[in-house]
Design brief:
single chain; alpha/beta; 6-stranded parallel beta sheet; 8 helices; about 40% helix; globular; binds farnesyl diphosphate
Length: about 250
Amino acid sequence: MAFPFLKKDMAKTEKSLPENLPQHIAFIMDGNGRWAKKRNMPRKFGHREGAKTFHDITRYCRSIGIKNASFYVFSTENWRRPQEEIDAIMNLLWEYLNDCDEYLEQEVRMIFIGDKSRLPERIRNRMIELEEDSKKYDKMNLILAINYGGRDEIAYAARQLAQKAVNGEIDPLSITEEMIGEHLYTKEIPDVDLMIRPSGELRLSNFLIWQCAYAEYYFTDVLWPDFARSELDKALWDYAGRGRRFGGV
Ligand code: FPP
């Protein structure tokens, strides 16, 4: 089957962008279900359309020089959805994971964050393979959160540190924020500068909660399947106009 994510030809922009681009943008791809509902279609059509947007936005991020782009694909809470919808998302993911040559050609490093152990074996193995094949690349880190939860990630870091303390490798009283950061899934990735959530919801939903401590937030009513490149441009201009003080004055 031809790669379905390439069909959508969204408007190309990048005619003028601010100079201070964020180093790390995180996207919560929300609104797929509502997009489908508005068209009297099953929710899975919304996810398919959302996957096309995802593909277009990743290519755009690479082309404008964003160094780290994270996407919330599937949360630890999403297992509560109907099995049919879970299967549809996993099938999309499987299709996508088998059509990643373009990223490798573009020297994009692919990193999958989240607990891989609960995922179907073929998906898990393909993720590990892609991480391995792309780890030499440094043009952009593409971070996909799959079976990911921010609290789950912090608990994972705590378990590792506790084990090291039990082994006598570290003193529990000397545990620092940096040490916690080094035990997160994102240990090689800088903190999030800009968090984007479409679809009108004003929440973080357990996404990169540690890494977003000083992030700027950008919310829009546009549903994710309609989130075109021009929407990202708007978010980038908005971000560029903000004064970031990181707790200083
Ligand atoms: C949230 O929208 C979206 C998800 C839980 C799934 C995101 C998945 C994709 C974009 C497709 C698969 C991605 C890849 C990488 C192939 P929602 O369903 O909660 O929307 P709603 O709030 O309108 O119901």
